[in-house]
Design a protein that fits this description.
It is a single chain. The protein has a domain of about 60 residues. Helices cover about 30% and strands about 15% of the residues. The strands form 2 sheets. The chain has a two-stranded antiparallel sheet. A two-stranded antiparallel sheet has the order 3-4. The longest helix is centred in the middle third of the chain and has 14 residues.
Amino acid sequence: MQKALSSPRPITVSGRTFSKEEIISIGKVVTSCNGLSRNELGLTVCELLEWERDNGKLKSRDCWDLLNQLNDRGDIALPALRAGRPKGKKTTVSHTESGEERASLPARSLILHQSDSSLLPAKMILRSGANY
């Protein structure tokens, strides 16, 4: 059950303490942007709070942790997780762009090939098949 947004306790995540006012603002964003995914909410909240790394990139992972903690405490109500690909499943493409069924391709191996010139860096060559 969600608590009233007027009474959240401050919380510290990744070295930053968030005030009651910031938590109330986060709650308003989550409520007003209810069509966004959790990922998009995290990025939106990061931008709102100007929560960035030294290199200028958003602290999105830390923000997701913050949102999850606030959700667990009942300060905000995050949207339900969206269905995704089941864990352990790989995406496969069974047809080519032209709609033809894709033939089974041999596994590819990545090998390094040293150039004849010692001044050039090693070149990476993609080869298929087992004859090296």
